[in-house]
Amino acid sequence: MEVKKVSISWQFLIVLVLILQILSALDFDPYRVLGVSRTASQADIKKAYKKLAREWHPDKNKDPGAEDKFIQISKAYEILSNEEKRSNYDHYGDAGESQGYQKPQQREYRFRHFHENFYFDESFFHFPFNSERRDSIDEKYLLHFSHYVNEVVPDSFRKPYLIKITSDWCFSCIHIEPVWKEVVQELEGLGVGIGVVHAGYERRLAHHLGAHSTPSILGIVNGKVSFFHNAVVRENLRQFVESLLPGNLVEKVTNKNYIRFLSGWQLENKPHVLLFDQGPAAPLLYKLTAFAYRDYLSFGYVYVGLRGVEEMTRQYNINVYAPTMLIFKEHINKPADSIQARGLKKQVIEDFITQNKYLLAARLTSQKLFHELCPVKRSHRQRKYCVVLLTTEASKLSKPFEAFLSFALANTQDTVRFVHVYSGRQQEFTSTLVPDSKAFQGKSAVSILERRNTAGRVVFKTLGDPWTGSENDKFILLGYLDQLRKDPAFLSSEAVLPELTDELAPVFLLRWLYSASEYLTDCWDSVFHSNWREMMPLLSLIFSALFILFGTVIVQAFSDSNEERESHPPDKEEVPEKMGKTEPSFMRESSSKIPRKGFVEVTELTDVTYTSNLVRLRPGHMNVVLILSNSTKTSLLQKFALEVYTFTGSSCLHFSFLSLDKHREWLEYLLEFAQDAAPIPNQYDKHFMERDYTGYVLALNGHKKYFCLFKPQKPVEEEETVGSWGDLGESRGKSSCGLGPKPLKGKLSKLSLWMERLLEGSLQRFYIPSWPELD
Description:
Domain J: 29-93
Region (Disordered): 561-587
Organism: Nannospalax galili (Northern Israeli blind subterranean mole rat)
Subcellular location: Endoplasmic reticulum membrane
Largest sheet: 6 strands, mixed
Main location: endoplasmic reticulum
Distance between the termini: 121 Å
Number of helices: 29
Strand order of the largest sheet: 10-12-11-13-14-15
């Protein structure tokens, strides 16, 4: 019984000490320490801090607790003076930089610290789950979401990243740790980025990467995530990183293709790099360098153990027993620079490549390259001048360009960069620098320029005569450079250059094909490697596309069958017309010919409905009136209903028809105000009563007293009829009577387009003083 009481009291003591330690850790309140409210401004916080700091400074206050009090005051001010830390404290009760996931970590640390004080260290039981000890190698590689998005993803376009997803209490993570440590030490020295994501604290980032289990290893190149699915051994991880890189980074060069490879500088506008080594494949370090500088140089690899490369090794004097790297620029017979050493290191290669990133006289093919070769002047001591050759494009090197190249080779300086531009591809750029003179047409010119700002402002001076490459031209250019070195104001002309056209950008079709191939590759990998959670977006997209396609086919099939029934109506269902009566709607007119898809109410405009449907029409409302005759009534009303059906949803539109046989004089009076209408004949004209206005449509605004006019097109059959009867002078009277229903319907073929313009308000309006009486 006594032993039981001792054990209970001992447990109670442990719990009590734990609670007191936690409360003491959570007892710190910066607002209470400084004596300010939670809504205090920065000025109030600073004022309170200065007052308390003077009062409790250990040099002035001899109280034994002054030093501890001063430390608390400083810590409180550090938290409240920083808006981010203050916000974290207000939301989470802690001033840590991370929001949410660090609190469990800190509580875990406090609990572990308590355990260590009472000799309950996990190492005593030999369980390697203490994250502070186990993940010490991973601490400097830990990634947060913002760091991944802002730094890792953009940097993945220059180098691949290898990322491990881990968590606490992960037995497999402990198993792969020795291999991971060895691979990290090797690949990081080659230039591969390394990252570690703790799935327990960085759930958002782990979910964003698509990692749903630990441990997971993935690679990132060009912002694209690829998962590692093989056994975690050194060689597999190395091959995985190599597989992340594009396959065409390094070209295999032999005696058969080395001239073609080195001659590509003119088309690609890049220096070309050749590595001679004894391995059958290019080293990973060389491939990583090629990936980082692929926009600036082209890379080739020569396997010196291959039969048939002796010609190259003799021509360029290569030592086959040590790796040798050569850089070729405009001249393929002699390298512009070389380096040879056993065990080439990453830093040595990068320095060598950086010094030879551009051609001796590179072609300006884009605005980005122009910014790099001819940077903006930042100070008087950092002046950069560009000597620009403006020449025509040629398949072979022209004499002016060769002379310019030799001049650039002999006068290379840190402050002067030599470039050239194809005047045919960059016409606006060329016309700004070259004077508009016949002497320069079709010839080369040389300009010296200095950029003043990124908006395109430059100062420049162009040689007075065309550049032919003669010794005299070189002498004049050399004199200009010497004079410029003495007097920067020598560049007297000023202009604003337009942006350069990107000559090497792929066309839209190629970019689309590249994107499509990458997407198909991702889908193929997802089918074989991804789990169902990762496959859900793809499956959803496929089923949605199939559903839309199937639905479209079904709707089209039903609509086609409806159109067939409508185009061949039975004769028995034709309803005879009711003459002389007001037609309340087109549905009553001929129900068999009405489209099944809708109902259009078309009323007749008579002396009874004239006042309500026009004269006293509410503001903002319009009445669309079709002009027809008794003989064309059925055909025109059917076509009119089809054309205006899509506009019946507007409550501001009303639809009517007007009989030309009854109200011709009213129509003729309105058309006199339409300036673009055909001349209205007078009443003594013998064809006055025979003029055909059927198919005209008027949009009448009764409140504002204006109308818009639609005049139908003449059908082809009518034009032929008019042409055949033109000599007899009888076409006007017979044009509307001798035509079938199809030509009549063709008059309103463009009415829907006219209605769209009516709703847009872009039609011409014809105003009248008052509405005439409708007799």
